[in-house]
């Protein structure tokens, strides 16, 4: 596979060659939507993964955020998964929900506010595992970044916390209506923690995927995690594609719990990538592992991570692409307002030219548009 992208500017200066890599598996063009047996069409174009839905435009992890992303042309929608007290998987980035719901305004749940240690960090608030699904459904989503994405607050108080099943149903219905497959790209959040309290995520995840006939390598499903043990377990239970997430610092929490000294940087080495390839199909790196920045936010030379991952047979889906200046490298900011939109197209072009196989995007329309510029 060899891609070309528009060159020029910093992207052209930083990148010296397109990178050959393993075939990218994207959802197939199909009228079958998310049905089992839909072939995952081989493609040489990077996939677009709607990060928490179209979270740049709607409160994250709501059906309306996912629906908008689908209408913008995304290939996959991404739910982060946690569980309720009665074992139902729901979409939230954290199990502590005061930052993305109106739980604090519900006096009937005031007594549920508590402090817990999650992955070694003390957290105070309200936790999904202390609510039944019926109770959680009485809450409404709120914008996580109200100061940054002011217009999104117009939707506060309107949308429920969705279940994984509701998200699958949405993908299926929207895909059928549009004659194309919409994939789901769930992430298990805090798997060691949830296992430690007797609410493991893997069993209900496998059950939901099995009930929906989504357990094959060709299924339009990709499961991701920052931890490793649960992915290795899932690799023995089902055949869906698996992605090992890699952060720019630290180590998987299951390594911490097990006394394994390896870090994410170790896993991003050629030897680490070879180990990951034993159980996963790709990596999902923090984009700073692909193109680092200096302390002022200026881009530095790209690393060899994409090339090394491809040599190990792994695809590379990096995160997170966001249009606002404060999230962009200094090179691509426009003006001084940290909340204004910058030149994200140039950022996509840089990463596409490096051979990236997919991007997690808060504004999936921008990724779809940038991809359309590929030769
Ligand atoms: O899953 C890819 C990316 O979403 C990881 O970051 O913290 O947004 O889940 P986070
Ligand atoms: Ca995620």
TrEMBL record:
Q: Which CDD domains match?
A: GDPD_ScGlpQ1_like
Q: What class of enzyme is it?
A: hydrolase
What EC numbers are recorded for this enzyme?
A: 3.1.4.46
Start and end of every GP-PDE domain? 46-371
Q: Which PROSITE patterns match?
A: GP_PDE (PS51704)
Q: Which residues form the signal peptide?
A: 1-25
InterPro entries reported in the protein's UniProt record? GP_PDE_dom, PLC-like_Pdiesterase_TIM-brl
Keywords, comma-separated and alphabetical? Glycerol metabolism, Hydrolase, Signal
Family statement drawn from the similarity comment of this UniProt entry: Belongs to the glycerophosphoryl diester phosphodiesterase family.
PANTHER family hit by this protein: GLYCEROPHOSPHODIESTER PHOSPHODIESTERASE GDPD5-RELATED (PTHR43620:SF7), GLYCEROPHOSPHORYL DIESTER PHOSPHODIESTERASE (PTHR43620)
> What is the name of this protein?
glycerophosphodiester phosphodiesterase
């Amino acid at each position: 596979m060899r891609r070309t992208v528009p060159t020029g500017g910093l992207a052209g200066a930083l990148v010296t060659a397109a990178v050959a890599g393993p075939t990218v598996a994207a959802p197939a063009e199909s009228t079958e939507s998310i049905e089992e047996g839909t072939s995952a069409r081989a493609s040489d174009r990077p996939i677009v993964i709607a990060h928490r839905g179209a979270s740049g435009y709607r409160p994250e992890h709501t059906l309306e955020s996912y629906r908008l992303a689908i209408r913008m042309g995304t290939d996959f929608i991404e739910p982060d998964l946690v569980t309720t007290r009665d074992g139902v998987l729901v979409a939230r980035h954290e199990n502590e929900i005061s930052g993305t719901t109106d739980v604090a305004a519900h006096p009937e749940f005031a007594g549920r506010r508590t402090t817990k240690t999650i992955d070694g960090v003390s957290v105070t608030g309200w936790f999904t595992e202390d609510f039944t699904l019926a109770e959680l459904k009485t809450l409404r989503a709120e914008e996580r970044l109200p100061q940054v994405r002011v217009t999104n607050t117009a939707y506060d108080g309107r949308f429920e916390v969705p279940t994984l099943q509701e998200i699958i149903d949405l993908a299926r219905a929207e895909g059928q209506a549009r004659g194309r497959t919409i994939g789901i790209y769930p992430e298990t959040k805090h798997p060691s923690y949830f296992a430690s309290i007797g609410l493991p995520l893997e069993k209900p995840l496998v059950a939901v995927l099995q009930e929906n006939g989504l357990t094959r390598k060709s299924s339009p499903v990709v499961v991701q995690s920052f931890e490793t043990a649960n992915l290795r377990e899932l690799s023995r239970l089902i055949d869906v594609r698996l992605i090992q997430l890699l952060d720019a610092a630290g180590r998987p929490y299951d390594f911490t719990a097990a006394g394994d000294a390896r870090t994410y940087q170790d896993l991003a080495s050629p030897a680490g990538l070879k180990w990951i390839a034993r159980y996963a199909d790709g990596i999902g790196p923090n984009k700073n592992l692909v193109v680092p920045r200096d302390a002022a936010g200026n881009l530095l030379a790209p690393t060899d991570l994409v090339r090394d991952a491809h040599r190990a047979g792994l695809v590379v889906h990096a995160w997170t692409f966001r249009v606002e200046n404060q999230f962009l490298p200094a090179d691509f900011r426009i003006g001084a307002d940290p909340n204004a939109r910058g030149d994200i197209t140039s950022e996509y072009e840089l990463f596409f030219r490096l051979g990236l196989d997919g991007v997690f995007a808060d504004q999936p329309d921008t990724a779809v548009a940038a991809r359309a510029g590929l030769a």
